[in-house]
Amino acid sequence: MENRIMEKQIENMTDQELVDYLFDKVDVKKTIYKMLTENTGTHFLDSGGASNRNWQRNQIKTIKDFQDEPEATLSFDVCGDYIYLEPTVSVFHKLSKLLDECKICKDFNALKVNNWDSQNYMGVSKEGENFLNSYGFTTPDNPVWNTYNWDNCFSQVVQGTNLISDNNENYVLIQIHQGADVRGGYTDAKLFIISDGMDCEHYSVHDDRCSFSVKNPAIDVLTKDMFNFTRNNELVIDYRGGYFSNGDGLELDQEYIKKFATLCDYKTISGWIVE
């Protein structure tokens, strides 16, 4: 009876009401925040000491603290005449921007996880596996990934299992590494639909592209040239998977990096995630 009432309510929803019902960014942020503050335990042989595990550092933050943090930051490490660039992409912002929770996700994520006794999914209980099977989820080739296994600039290690729904939409099971030793200390897996479903590929979840810019006050942006164009006074640094480039896609040299760092007074600056 309750299901029929809900079906009737859904039928009478406007398009916007249906979107608000199916996808709630506030809920996504809450779920990710809970994962980032989940206590994944300690071990006397790990390197976390008394309070240096990810979950311990994160638990002193509120969800507003995470929301107020920049999507990405860029720092400068000077070693002699060489300047190393150190970008960082916020896992909170990356996941909350790209992922959504539909009704199926919310129901899965509400399941109590007493044991990781699934035979096919990491961080999932047998009940959770049965839930996924009941909705016809399948896995593509090589579905499991872990950001620890390649160069990236995420603020924390993320592990995922790619899923495809019975109507060919892209979902993902996400675990966040909360411990010290990367071999353990992961959260329970939570289910998310990737924004735009069929139009957003699985790899976009662990794509760490980010961008930074700084204005050069020495460049005249008011005077127009012979073609009636003004000059752009922004220097840009784009990052993706260990590769740095300028706004034109050209690899950076030390002269460009030094000019950029000087304009930033060699201080850490904020940037944004490239979607």
Keywords:
six-stranded antiparallel sheet, 22% strand, five-stranded antiparallel sheet, 275 residues, 11 strands, 9 helices, disordered N terminus, alpha+beta, globular
Which percent bin holds the helix content?
A: 25-40%
Largest sheet composition: 6 strands, antiparallel
Q: In one word, what is the shape? A: globular
Report the radius of gyration as a whole number of Å: 22 Å
Outline the structure in words:
The chain is α+β, with helices and mostly antiparallel strands and 275 residues long. It has a domain at 2-68 and 101-206. The protein has helices at 2-11, 15-22, 25-36, 54-58, 63-68, 91-98, 103-109, 126-134, 254-263, and strands spanning 72-79, 82-89, 99-100, 144-146, 158-164, 170-176, 190-194, 210-215, 234-240, 243-245, 269-273. Strand 1 and strand 2 form a beta hairpin. Helix 3 (25-36) runs antiparallel to helix 6. The radius of gyration is 22 Å and the shape is globular. The model is unreliable at 1-6 (pLDDT under 50).
Secondary structure topology:
Elements: H1 2-11, H2 15-22, H3 25-36, H4 54-58, H5 63-68, E1 72-79, E2 82-89, H6 91-98, E3 99-100, H7 103-109, H8 126-134, E4 144-146, E5 158-164, E6 170-176, E7 190-194, E8 210-215, E9 234-240, E10 243-245, H9 254-263, E11 269-273
Antiparallel strand pairs: 1-2, 1-11, 3-7, 4-5, 5-6, 6-7, 8-9, 8-11, 9-10
Quick take:
This protein is an alpha+beta fold and 275 residues long. Helix content is 27%, strand content 22%.
